[in-house]
């Protein structure tokens, strides 16, 4: 019994200790006064504002694109659906750098799409818009996958019943299916936002690494490590870690409450 | 007023069938599991594609989407919206009927009282007993005062005592409101209690039967079908 306890506890302790060790080592690199100074610097404040602005915009776009797509995938059958689903999963498994190179070639002025956008006066590359594009690209994939599972867990009989009650399909989606999938959709949104906040590789390719222009928090870490300003790099890294922890905790609480409510429902069902 | 008429209705499960339900009449559709009973109801509700024609009170429903058919449908799983209270389950469909807030509130209160579930108006469906959920689902199916009521194994998950009480109440309520009804059940006693006559589906084929002979007060199966 004692051997088993050691066998299961030791790896867990080792993993947690390694993660905490890395975070602690990062935090201990700067005295508190220097950390406060770095946190208050113009560059750090720009990176925080840029990251929040771009990631929230990307989240809104990803939700607008991803939620209807997820509903369609969960509710409808159509030719080539497995291929479409596989394509939608690609951004999650390909390195963001690869996705970024693809977007770069797609939207470059020499390419048909990029040329057309450029003719309309839309310059997405190497601009803050490029940051949003890269973050949206990555976050959408996460949201489609999570929201699809959320809608898949809602019995389509509810929407059918809503229809027989005279509720038009769009309103049944909005007033019945979305609230029923609500907590899981919220968790999907938080996960998508976390991915957008931490996005680096695709942003580097699409928006470039320009100080005080396309400088998100991950970009600030990269730029300042490369230029030897470790104080700002560490400050931005710690902000990213704090945000990631808060978002992961939010997801955990959201899904845990959902599990509890499902258990309660099951209890009532069995008691009835 | 000419009630419900099905002309040559068929799909992959059902052989072409004709059926007429007179205005204010309740017809039970009996048959074993998998015979196509629920499929027939879903076709009438507009939830499944089919061949043939569906007419209600002389008007053709065949091409109308479900939300424009004016039919009340109570499925076996009830599908009460779990995020809404019982009262709001009834309010929601009325929003799309163009009734103002006061008229909606009055209709909801009246329907909840009719179905004897007004004392649970503010509760969520998950906190109701099995019988209360059936009453809430029935109230929701009736709140828009449908021309036709479709009941799919409406009380299948209840104990005998609760079912017997609900059968009598629902039959009285339907007659009082003068609603035409098509009721799917595999239980002849339920058919006898709720319907004026019954038809039988077996292997996707419909056969007419005589009026149910069981007493409406019966709570257990009384005849073999």
Automatic annotation (TrEMBL), chain A:
The record's listing under NCBIfam families reads:
ABC_perm1, Mo_ABC_porter
Q: What is this protein called?
A: Molybdate transport system permease protein
| Role, per record | Part of the ABC transporter complex CysAWTP (TC 3.A.1.6.1) involved in sulfate/thiosulfate import. Probably responsible for the translocation of the substrate across the membrane.
Which residue windows are transmembrane per the record? 56-74, 86-105, 125-144, 156-176, 232-254
The molecular function GO annotations come to: ABC-type sulfate transporter activity
Which intervals hold domain ABC transmembrane type-1? 48-251
Subcellular localization, per the record?
Cell membrane
Question: Oligomeric state and partners?
Answer: The complex is composed of two ATP-binding proteins (CysA), two transmembrane proteins (CysT and CysW) and a solute-binding protein (CysP).
Give the domain of life: Bacteria
Name the family: Belongs to the binding-protein-dependent transport system permease family.
Native organism: Rhodovulum steppense
From TrEMBL, chain B:
The protein's UniProt keywords, in alphabetical order, are:
ATP-binding, Nucleotide-binding, Transport
A Pfam family (short name) is ABC_tran
Alphabetical list of InterPro entries matching this protein: AAA+_ATPase, ABC_SmlMolc_Importer, ABC_transporter-like_ATP-bd, ABC_transporter-like_CS, P-loop_NTPase
Q: Give one GO molecular function term.
A: ATP binding
* Record domain ABC transporter: where: 4-221
Task: Give a yes or no for keyword Transport in this entry.
Answer: yes
Q: Does the keyword Zinc apply?
A: no
Name the SMART domains on file.
Answer: AAA
Mind telling me what this protein is named? Putrescine transport system ATP-binding protein
The source organism is Rhodovulum steppense
Specify the taxonomic lineage.
Bacteria, Pseudomonadati, Pseudomonadota, Alphaproteobacteria, Rhodobacterales
